[in-house]
Design goal:
- Chain B: Pfam families: DUF1619_N, TCTN_DUF1619.
- Chain B: Residues 23-69 are annotated as: Disordered.
- Chain B: Keywords: Cilium biogenesis/degradation, Glycoprotein, Signal.
- The structure holds two protein chains of two kinds.
- Chain A has helices spanning 22-44, 89-95, 212-220, 264-295; strands at 13-16, 53-57, 60-73, 82-86, 103-109, 119-126, 134-147, 152-182, 191-192, 224-229, 234-237, 245-252, 256-260, 302-305.
- Residues 310-315 of chain A have low confidence and may be disordered.
- The longest helix of chain A has 32 residues, at 264-295.
- Chain A folds into two domains: 31-51 and 262-301, no CATH class; 54-260.
- In chain A, the strands form three sheets. In chain A, strands 3, 4, 5, 6, 7, 8, 9, 10, 11 and 12 form a ten-stranded mixed β-sheet that branches.
- Chain A is built from four helices and 14 strands.
- By secondary structure, chain B is an alpha+beta fold.
- Among the domains of chain B are: 212-366, no CATH class; 389-548, no CATH class.
- The radius of gyration of chain B is 45 Å and the shape is extended.
- Mean pLDDT of chain B is 75; it is low at 1-85.
- Classes of the chains: A alpha+beta, B alpha+beta.
- Strand 5 (103-109) of chain A pairs antiparallel with strand 19 of chain B, so a sheet runs across the interface.
Amino acid sequence: MALHELFSHPVERGYRAGLCSKAALFLLLATALTYIPPLLVAFRSHGFWLKRSSYEEQPTVRFQHQVLLVALLGPEHAHGGFLAWSTFPAFNRLQGDHLRVPLVSTREEDRNQDGKMDVLHFKLELPLRSTEHVLGVQLILTFSYQLHRMSTFMMQSMAFLQASFAVPGSQLYVNGDLRLQQRQPLSYRGLDVRYNVSVINSSSPFARDYDLTHIVAAYQERNVTTILTNPNPIWLVGRAAEAPFVINAVIRYPVEVISYLPGFWEMIKFAWVQYVSILLIFLWVFERIKRFVFQNQVVTTVPVTAGSQGEPYKEHLS
Amino acid sequence: MFASLLSLLQVLFLMIPEGVQPQPSPSPSGAVPTHLNVGPRTQGGTLQSSSEGTETPWAVPGTSTVGPNVVTPSAPGNGTVDVFPVLPICVCDLTPGTCDINCCCDKDCYLLHPRTVFSFCLPGSVRSSSWVCVDNSLIFRSNSPFPSRVFMDSNGIKQFCVHVNNSKLNYFQKLQKVNATNFQALATEFGGESFTSTFQTPSPPPFYRAGDPILTYFPKWSIISLLRQPAGVGAGGLCAESNPAGFLESESTTCARFFENLTDSCTLEPALNAASYYNFTVLKVPRGVSDLQNTKFQVPVTLVSQAGPPLLAGNTCQNVVSKVVYEIETNGTFGIQKVSVSFEQTNLTVKPSTSLQQHFIIRFRAFQQNTAAALSGPRSGNPGYIVGKPLLALSGGIKHSMTLLQSQGDGTCSVKRHEVQFGVNAISGCKLRLERVDCSRLQQKIYQTLDGGPRPEHVAIFGNADPAQKEEWTRILSRNCNVSARHCTSCCVIPVSLEIQILWAYIGLQSNPQAHVLRTRFLYQCQSMQDSQQETEVSLTTVVTFVDVTQKPEPPRGQPRVDWKLPFDFFFPFKVAFSRVDSQKGSVSPILTLCLLLLGVLNLETK
């Protein structure tokens, strides 16, 4: 009857030598070479410390129902070229004859019923005299923008829309995304309300606070902003005399990839993963080298079998 | 580089089995030697093979820089060999009787060695074959199964070349037989999308189906046409005259017309003339096309109100059609039973360039429908409100939709008002010129302007509310401003803005929620003004705000809320894997993974 190997276990073997012997020096050297080079390899191959990371989140965006509209009129209009309106009373007061109150209707829609708004339908009908022709439009809509997953980030942001054409228009159609623009990463935790200030200072009575260049300049100073990405606004022409100029906008709030600064433990975790995976190779290689050196007595040692120390083998209990 | 490595490998492969006997290779042509002849080749033999066509072996970079194709040794004494490279079809010989440049197979060129004259040979003018070459001295014996041969390159170095398998050298073999029966089948099987001519003349169906164009007949000219509903088209929004109306599709369209010279167009332009909208008969069913003399299949268009033709009186063009409303009664497959039309007309002043906006409305209803029910107006939802439908209000027992102010082109208040749409927040405003009347009259007038007539008292809870059922309506909370002027006695407190706040919520099944209005509030904001002032303008604002106060039920277990920061994605891969199992039955991989994982854990335990 043939015999099969049913079970096996390694036999431990000790090698003895003095602390100041060649063998001890070799061991010290081998240990150092095992543990330090993986660290250097991991570090020099870049990306050892995770300095930036990113995550996905759909922001909680709400339209703040603040609108600032400037409609640029054709040159034949003797009245000085523009009509304006906003939801800010002070701005409206400043406009005088240029004020023209439009009909604005908005609707925010939560398509997947997850509690976060997904899209804003915005429609503005600006009544015009038959002699007035709109050649360009500047429109600011403001939003409150919040992120929750990593750090709680709150800001008040805006979507700025500017479109102009050489031909008098009847309608402007825009269908775009409200995208987050980051100039610097967010924090991984905590509350961030740096930019939770209104884009347009609605309490100010001064004209310069409603100046578009001033508003845009102050807004662009921020490191985190939102922009309206609409590759091509559609400008429709051919307005009947009594018809209003219509701005039709569909603004979506898409899922954003947000970059953030990883926290301490996240950094350590990724470094550890890299280090250990390289270390395993070094451990295996140096184990082989050490075994070769000691088995073949390259350095002088006194071999001691584990069996001579009493127990034939140690049972590993778990 | 890669190619040269490949060829080196090939060389190695050829060199290694030196001791092995050369195997007989299945060479397709007998002229190609399978066994490498290291000794000098007879000129005739090479010529023999070259007479099959000019071979163009591609030289392997690194091993041989110049292709050995230059070596087509001439045999001055051998007259039997055709000096022209023989190709059965010379694809580049396009001008008969003339030598085509760079066409190496053109017999009109009478060139012994076309390459000496031409800078290159056009593709297709030389026989294509793929040769991979190495220096001949590297090869001792070839046992490659592929045909091989030795060439001499321009430097006089012998090159050993192997003819490699190349799928490009295959022929198109299978030819389809096409006849009348399988033509269409082949065209559909192999054809993709292509341009098609859409001109089709189908036979008229026995009756109209929803969306079918409605046929009309002009008895005066015996012309069949379609019932038209002009609609704005393109960037200009100009009226597209021939836009057909769809059967049973009640629709309303608006479009603009521009007139360069209204003096002429006023009377000549048919679009401005009411008569052109009813001087035809409508076919009850499309089948009526076959028998146009039979009036049984035709319905005349009846006029609800008299509409005169356009009239040029001085500087105005009178009786211009601005709105056309068709009312069509239908009766199932019996088709159209009655068509009536009504007009709205306006006057246009003649200017160099005049524009006009026209409205076209087509309404369908069932024949002999209960007119009382039809009078009550359309629902805004059944039962729950639909977003975008008008918000229903009740004032004095009459149902109407709630409205907001609207301004005219010059910013003053318009008689036309904007309908409040359910779920759509809106703001509007206009300027109102005040006459000098006493304060209470003034207030009354402004309140009326803000409210749009008598103030609505109730608002419908659901979109299908019946004015007769009082419990289906909820009272609007409203309060006028404090009338008493505060500081001055000569002041008049007038309202300047109205905010309509509507609290609404979803009710019913979460999968089929129905929106209903909980309560509505009218909020007026007032301003005091000097009573003694002259005629002034006051700017009025109306705002409507919809607030969703739906209390969402607790989300099902395991679904996180928006504001949670708990590590709810801890078991993310498992969740994803198992949710995928749910969606596509029969996938066992996640279960298998889990089992393996469990097994692994158990193994660790027992070690």
